[in-house]
Specification:
Blueprint lengths: L3 E9 L3 E7 L6 E7 L2 H11 L4 E8 L6 H8 L3 E5 L15 H14 L10 H33 L13 H8 L6 H30 L4 H10 L7 H11 L8 H7 L4 E6 L2 E7 L5 H11 L10 H7 L4 H25 L1 H29 L1
Parallel strand pairs: 1-4, 4-5
Antiparallel strand pairs: 1-2, 2-3, 6-7
Helix pairs in contact: 4-6, 4-8, 7-8, 7-13, 8-10, 9-13, 10-13, 12-13
Length: 370
């Protein structure tokens, strides 16, 4: 007998998984709810699979991560993790239950209307976890600094003229502050201790990022990305961790859309309207590209730090980075006066994403040539 395919829609939660089944023909049916643990999942695959049955499963990406995907793959099940924002929704459908979600996934999986996301390897996900932890630490550090600065503002205290916030001179000014009331002094000391602890945490995680080894292909891409002005180690490792293999994007616009840097559009008939960028996809990647885009304000040049990062790199990599400098600075000057600084930076971020994609292809070409 020929092998038949059975499609499984899984609505996964912390403790339970709602399961629906769609055969090659006929309506999808509810199977029931199982516990979200390896034993129950293994039993489900044993019951529904077999020598003559090919199981194909799908569940939506969420807080449960990729553990279910890896277990199903280990059991020989073809599993896709689905982007929830790209799952088709019926107009007027206002009822949502786990059972209905599982049925919908099974039907759409069978019809091929679901969009799967990239599932990183366990070691790559570990690197991404470290990158995101460091980003969280920087956000906590900034929040701690804001609390302290707002406390000083409420107290009517202002830093000396010319003392840039959190510079050595600013820190010296903080060291000599004393408050009349003991309660205020306790609050001030606590806020300063929190800022120091947050800074130490950020530095510790940044050091751990440098110490963590990367696979050879990731290390080559990491070094190549640092050839761009504005992309140093921390920015480059964020891009590598969040994106993985840039070759999975067939074109540069696909990568720009993944970063949420393409404009939204509403067109109907002869009417065509483009709005703000979509901001879909990876927010941390978009933030890193936006920070790097600020360097396009300055005239193209190779400073000492950039020359050091580019030392020993292949000529095509260095040439591409230089063309990026020329192009991005020209775009910023052209658009800045016409559209304003913020829109110009957004456009430069989008074009920088295109150069990052091109760098990924260039590194892949160098690997093939080697």
């Amino acid at each position: 007998m020929s092998e038949r395919t059975r499609f499984l829609g899984l609505d996964a939660h912390k403790a339970t998984i709602a399961v629906a089944i769609a055969e090659e023909a006929g309506p999808a049916e509810t199977y029931g709810t199982i516990a979200n643990d390896p034993g129950a999942v293994r039993k489900l695959v044993t019951r529904l699979g077999g020598p003559e049955v090919r199981l194909v499963a799908a569940y939506e990406a969420g807080p449960t991560g990729f553990a279910l995907h890896r277990q199903l793959a280990g059991l020989g099940v073809e599993c896709a993790v689905i982007a929830p924002s790209l799952t088709p929704v019926r107009p007027g459908d206002r009822v949502k239950t786990d059972r209905r979600d599982a049925l919908k996934l099974a039907r759409l999986l069978r019809s091929g209307d679901l969009t799967a996301i990239w599932v990183p390897a366990p070691e790559h996900e570990a690197l991404r976890n470290l990158v995101r932890s460091r980003a969280d630490a920087k956000a906590d550090e900034l929040r701690a600094k804001h609390r302290l600065s707002k406390f000083l503002l409420r107290s009517g205290l202002h830093a000396p003229v010319g003392a840039r916030a959190w510079s050595v001179r600013y820190q010296a000014w903080l060291n000599q502050l004393r408050f009349e009331h003991e309660a205020d002094q306790v609050v001030f000391d606590d806020y300063r201790a929190t800022v120091r602890a947050a800074g130490d945490r950020s530095q510790r995680l940044a050091t751990a990022l440098r110490d963590c080894s990367l696979a050879p292909e990731q290390a080559r891409l990491l070094a190549a990305l640092q050839a761009f002005r504005g992309i140093s180690f921390l920015s480059a490792v964020t891009i590598v961790a969040e994106v993985g293999d840039l070759r999975r994007f067939a074109t540069a616009p696909q990568f720009m859309a993944y970063a949420g840097l393409v404009p939204s559009e509403y067109s109907s008939g002869a009417s065509r309207h483009r709005g703000r960028i979509t901001k879909t996809g990876n927010a941390l990647l978009r933030h890193v590209l936006g920070e790097a885009a600020h360097h396009a304000r300055h005239a193209p040049m190779r400073g000492a730090a950039l020359r050091q990062r580019q030392e020993g790199m292949p000529a095509p990599i260095v040439d591409l980075a230089w063309r990026a400098q020329l192009r991005l600075h020209d775009r910023y000057r052209h658009l800045g006066g016409r559209l304003g600084r913020q829109k110009a930076l957004t456009a430069v971020s989008r074009e920088l994403a295109g150069f990052v994609w091109a760098m990924g292809q260039a590194v892949a070409a160098e690997d093939v040539a080697a």
